[in-house]
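Pipeline run #58 for the internal structure catalog. This entry was flagged by the ingest filter as a single-chain record with no existing model, so it goes straight to prediction. Upstream metadata was stripped on purpose; only the residue string is passed forward. Reviewer on rotation: M.T. Logging verbosity set to normal.
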Amino acid sequence: MSWWKPRSIRGQLIFGLILLEGLLVLVFATLLVREQASEIHERARLRLESEAGLLALQSQDSLSAGRGDYLQAILRTMRTNPTIREAMVTGPDSRVIASSDPTLKGKDVLTPFEKQQVPPVTGSMIFRASGGAAREAVAPVRVAGKLVGYAWVYEDSALEEQQIYSLVQWTIIFALSGAIGTAFIASFLARSITRPLNTLHIATQKLIRDPETKEGFPLAVTSANEAADLTRAFNLMVTSIEEQRAGLNDTLALLDSMLENAPIGFAFFDRKFRYVRVNQFLADMDQMPIAWHLGRTIEELLPPAASGILRESVQNVFDTGTPARDLEMTAFFPAGSDHQRSWLVNVYPVKTSVQSVRWVGAIIVETTERKRSEEALRKTEKLAAAGRLAASIAHEINNPLEATTNLLYLLRQETSLGPQARSYADSAQYELSRVAEMTQQTLRFYRQSTLPVVANLGELLDSVVTLFHGRLHARRIELIRNIAPETDLYCFAGEMRQLFANLVGNALDASNEGGRLFLDVRRSRFAGDGSMGVRIFVADNGCGMTAETRRRIFEPFFTTKDDTGTGLGLWVSDEIIHKHNGNVRVRSRFREQSAPEGKSSGTIFMIFFPEDGIGPAPQSQRAALVQQA
């Protein structure tokens, strides 16, 4: 409630009367101050004009008698007048003959604007200097009919302003006195209205605390005005509620039992689309308490994408009495989040008579996880099919590649080839070798061994980088790698290759064009117990992750790539790391899109595998591990 809109009748009455009185006082005070200020200004003008004329006459007498010292005394006397700031007498050449300030004698102190006012002066003249607020008066000084100078009087407006300020001050005091008196009278009148209302308010609070209480009911009617009618209506309402409650108790008991024990969400709506009842299961599903639902509309709790469908279905059930089944709703919930949820809703009428639909009930089942699982399964099947297809194509390409390689070899043996043709053949052989390497990497990637072997992690990471060579080149991403040769580990090589592919692919997705990708593989010690092992760093200087994203990156089906991600990559990666007794740490610095370009950001994955990896290697494969240890 705004501060200018009182809650109580007493406050509204006082506020209204004070507002009315304030407007009247404001109009009256404006007219009074304007009239009085005009009168004060006029008196000041006449006084200034009179002072200028008097100074001109006294100057005429002093100059005709040759008494300049007498004129100087007159000016000093005029300076003591609180309405005069300064007075002086100038000659026709604008130089000071005498002044209340003796230091100005003989000087030309008139402004160009003041000099323009001098020639047409035949009597006293009042004007305001250019840019000045105070007025000044000038009167000619004549001796024997000849103009010998001008008398100047400069007004001091402080007294005039003080008079106006005093007038405004007394007007404000009068207005405040009237407001206090009005408030007192309004408070006295409001008591006859607020007393019955206060009685109704107390009775209502009793009913809220204990709907079955009979203490103090029916309320006594103590007045003969509209408040008495309101009290009688309240008594009738309480009696009616009591009668209805008796018939609803059994129905509510059955409904409460069903609502509390059902493992699905229940909600009931009235004709204004407000929640009448909900069960705890639905409250937990919406992540809101039951009390937060009751009395609120569908639009207040659900996002537009879902509330529109549900509202239309509820309205149709109220209109036709026909239930609606298997409604699918999808929306981002809570509103404004990036968490998309899905629900399956069945809407049915709740009738209190044969033809009247009292409420509309809704059975709500959340299908978010099921849809995610189905979508992830479809994506996984597509990825598996694409992988098998890529492996098949790579296998089929090998045969013509081998034939082409042999033909190029024979071609290079021909003695008739010139140097330039032989150079072309060498280039073709080099490019063909690159294609063969890519096909071999593809086959190794999708044809994994089911048994652990001693594998070099640096070589596995290099094979993964080869698969992403095209993306690195297309996006101009600089690859910085520091891979030590002694990084053998007893592991599932295929799973390791899948782990590296997930990390490198995510780093490329997060990197901007022209970014950098850092790969580091080295032998190291674990900070926890000092044991030896292999440490892998995969880092980028891309957009980074928020704290919320970092918290959920290893959850299944959680993804920030919308339609292009399954949410399974890092989940599978985490399983692979733990399967090999590894440890992973993630550091990331997030940069908003609106942040300046110079602000650093990016993500680092640090993975440590113990020396034994998946476990002790067989005796036949321990030679490499013993040699590098």
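catalog note: The chain has 17 helices and 17 strands.
catalog note: The mean pLDDT is 78.
status: ready for reviewer M.T.
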